[in-house]
């Protein structure tokens, strides 16, 4: 029986990191939201981190 470290991710590939400023320009995200993302995530983040932290206003109910 071998001991396996479960804290390590299964994948060995490096996760692609996006430049937050470039991502915001491509996605049409406003300057204030870009600054907030840079403040909480730093200059680079994964796409998943960006998508989970972008503030979207309340949707309009019909």
Structure keywords:
62 residues; two-stranded antiparallel sheet
Structure, described:
- This protein is mainly alpha-helical and 62 residues long.
- It has a domain of 37 residues.
- The protein is 42% helix and 10% strand.
- It is built from three helices and two strands.
- It has a two-stranded antiparallel ribbon with strand order 1-2.
- It is globular, with a radius of gyration of 17 Å.
- The model has no long low-confidence stretch (mean pLDDT 82).
Quickly describe the structure.
This protein is mainly alpha-helical and 62 residues long.
Provide the succession of SSEs: EHHEH
What structural class do you assign from the helix and strand content? mainly alpha
What characteristic shape results from the CA principal axes? Answer: globular
Rg from alpha-carbon coordinates: 17 Å
Total beta strands: 2
The neighbouring-strand order within the major sheet is 1-2
Largest sheet entry: 2 strands, antiparallel
Terminus-to-terminus distance = 59 Å
Determine the number of helices (DSSP H or I, runs of at least 4 residues). Answer: 3
User: Overall pLDDT, averaged?
Assistant: 82
Oligomeric description of these chains: single chain
Question: How much helical structure, as a percent, in the residues?
Answer: 40-55%
